[in-house]
């Protein structure tokens, strides 16, 4: 599979102003690979980002609890209405669109930058929709391609689940199905090959459809990784439900107010961050050097399948362990009798803004380039010279990677997404702590190790954005 990649040459100047030049090359890559890597003065902007997060931590020591609560107080807008029939209809329409994309994947152009299926899945859905889900709110419930078909099947054939999903499994099935999705994204030799991706999408839809018929809605809540992903990110969107009304609030207000998730759901939230981070790490020169591979002579994704799978699992286990240790140290410092398992659960949702911030920052440049390819593919889905959207001959541009002002804006958006995500996470964690501990002093002490964990992750996330990448 061939895909255009744009890589800069680093220019160091005597002042903070930098210049970028890009060169176009072809390489084997997965569809969500960044189109451009900004090799910036890392020490300067990492210092600035970490300072912003650290100052936020210091501010919390003097900020009144009432002020913090007001920051996350939602503003009710209109009365909430249940529109189940409308959602079932849009779900069925979503399935029809998905079937059309799968058909185009099997019969359409073989070029993943021309065929609509890879661009729809990896660019519009994985980058665009997942980002909007976390920024705006629960959009997925309207286009979930299973809800409507399953409801219709149950209405025509039978009601109720055939089997009961064992409670002892918890959310392990959702974790496994999501890890399976990420393994395809990061380790499959050709995840953007249209026909290969069409088989993956078709089989996963059928598998989930049958599981929902067999186990009922419980599979959607605890067994299906994509639904869990979307539900988690929906809780950090600015729009949500509050006292039977649609409400607007600061990113994370819903997650900060929701009751503690189950232990499996808490682990899933950490896995979101771990997988997102490894998605950036496995492309770096550092990772390829660790594997003993010269990034200038990269042998192809098929040569690192096992290494990437093992690295993905180890990265997630290391993250969960580091988070668990930070929670344990915080409880020891606060001298509180709160159980470690409950603390692990109640603070896990505060990790979600970090995961979302890195998702937005990491994929921004890919969206800028591949989003144009997606528009061109929708305009001419069969590559026959059609102009269904009336765009005529559509040219993909990457000129914004060659101008200093536009590159500066892109960089600030990437770094800003990571830093803002960490600041929101720290604010959320402190608000949750104020509700769980008897005194503000205990709440602050309990957050110190977690704040150190988040500051360290800020450094790591910003380094990932600037690290040289292998092809």
Main β-sheet description: 3 strands, antiparallel
First-last Cα distance: 13 Å
Provide the succession of SSEs.
EEHHEHHHHHHHHEEHHHHHHHH
Which parts are unreliable, with pLDDT below 50 for 5 consecutive residues or more?
1-36
Return the structural class: mainly alpha
Tally of helical runs: 18
Based on CA inertia axes, which overall geometry fits?
Answer: globular
Total E-strand runs: 5
Helix content: 55-70%
Proportion of strand residues: 5-15%
Whole-angstrom Rg: 23 Å
Major sheet strand order: 3-5-4
Q: What is this structure's SSE topology?
A:
Blueprint: E1 3-10, E2 20-27, H1 42-62, H2 65-71, E3 75-79, H3 84-107, H4 116-135, H5 140-143, H6 147-156, H7 172-187, H8 194-215, H9 217-222, H10 225-234, E4 239-242, E5 245-248, H11 253-257, H12 263-281, H13 285-290, H14 305-334, H15 340-347, H16 352-379, H17 404-436, H18 440-466
Helix pairs in contact: 1-17, 1-18, 3-4, 3-6, 3-8, 4-10, 4-16, 7-10, 7-12, 12-14, 12-15, 12-16, 14-15, 14-18, 16-17, 17-18
